[in-house]
Amino acid sequence: LDRTGLILEIFSDRAATREGVLQVEMAALNYQRTRLVRAWTHLERQRGGLGFVGGPGETQIESDRRAIDDQLVRLRRQLDKVVKTRALHRAARAKVPYPIVALVGYTNAGKSTVFNRLTGADVMAKDMLFATLDPTMRSLVLPDGPEIILSDTVGFISDLPTELVAAFRATLEEVLAADIICHVRDISHAESEEQARNVREILTSLGVPKDTRSFEVWNKLDLLDDDRANAVRARAQRDPDVLAISAISGEGMDNLQAVIAEALQGAVREAELTLGFADGKKRAWLFAQEIVTDEKQTEEGFVVTVRWSSEQESQFHRI
Ligand SMILES: Nc1nc2c(ncn2[C@@H]2O[C@H](COP(=O)(O)OP(=O)(O)OP(=O)(O)O)[C@@H](O)[C@H]2O)c(=O)[nH]1
Ligand SMILES: [Mg+2]
Q1: Averaging pLDDT over each range in 20-24, 63-67, 215-219, 304-308, which range is the top one?
Q2: CA dist list (Å): 167 to 19, 107, 133, 208, 257
């Protein structure tokens, strides 16, 4: 098994959603397709020097390839359907006036452990690579803060074989919609710096908007010796974009929630509100705040699109 084959094995073991399964199947077929050519070329070479072009080998490759191509077209169609359904879900969620906080990071950094600790959910957290293939989302209310949607994502790795990039990216679309990105790092890992660089590159190549508020969450503080742990704590003190935590001991977890809540105070997001004709006071308030970007009249009232902060949102609900 080469590296691609191995990663595919892991992916297929972990794929949980319909989309994940389809993407892994497609990647596996594409992989087989290239191996097929290589396998046959290898055979031809072994037979060696017969000197005829074409021959039985050639035809066999062609028909094997065609079978794989047909299967790929079928999978692509199914996948398009699944992605469409998911886009609908996303559009529906965009109307939920909760900010999205995405946990991203290198595989095994501790994203799912942080996620579980914050939500009390039982997402698979294991000491193995790619424990999460598909993004998982939960809503939670931050202490003294707004309700948010927390998103756990699949782990990144360096030098992901190109033929697996599409499968990997599609699992990360949610990150593009995030209001806040928490880049979770295993700060005890010898290659922590390289991993972080890799994650930043992937985020850029995914097209994450540059102005997305993001934090580095330096995790596994408990695994450092006292001197290094103190150095990391001091660094986090100085740098407002760096947070030091241990998802296992719980150190820094309250601060993490407070920092997210605070960052969301200034964040502006879009929401679509349905107002009845009796909600004249609410509607007037929205216009007075100058946050209405679109309005449509319906039989029951108005559908108003606004861009507002979470403060404005809670003020609105008190009217
Ligand atoms: N000592 C220590 N171990 C941790 C900490 N956070 C997570 N771990 C362990 O690190 C391993 C990986 O944690 P996960 O939460 O599964 O990591 P992940 O980032 O979700 O990994 P993938 O889903 O594979 O990308 C598990 O064995 C966790 O128990 C921490 O703060 N301290
Ligand atoms: Mg995980």
Answers
A1: 215-219
A2: 9, 16, 10, 17, 31
Pocket test for ligand 1, best of 7, 10, 112, 245 (most atoms within 8 A of CB): 112
Q: Which residues does 252 contact at the CB level (< 8 Å), separation at least 6?
A: 221, 236, 243, 244, 245, 246
Q: What is the C-alpha separation between 147 and 7, in angstroms, rounded?
A: 36
Distance of CA 269 to the CA centre of its chain: 19
Residue nearest to atom 8 of ligand 1 (CA): 110
* Positive/negative CA dihedral, 183, 187, 188, 194: positive
- What confidence tens digit (pLDDT) does each residue in 184-223 have? 999 999 999 999 999 998 888 888 888 789 999 999 999 9
Which residues touch 11 (CB under 8 Å, ≥6 apart)? 20, 24, 27, 130, 133, 164, 167
297 pairs with which residues across the strands? 302
Q: Give the CA angle between residues 42, 44, 46 to the nearest 5°.
A: 70
In order, the DSSP letters of 203-272 are HHHHT--TTSEEEEEEE-GGGS-HHHHHHHHHHHHH-TTEEE--TTT-TTHHHHHHHHHHHHHH-EEEEE
Give the contacts of 210 (CB within 8 A, at least 6 positions apart).
none
Q: What is the pLDDT of residues 18-45, one digit of tens each?
A: 777 787 788 888 888 877 765 555 555 5
Q: Which atom of ligand 1 is nearest to the CA of 223?
A: 1
End-to-end CA distance of the chain: 63
User: Cα 37 to the chain's mean position, in Å?
Assistant: 34
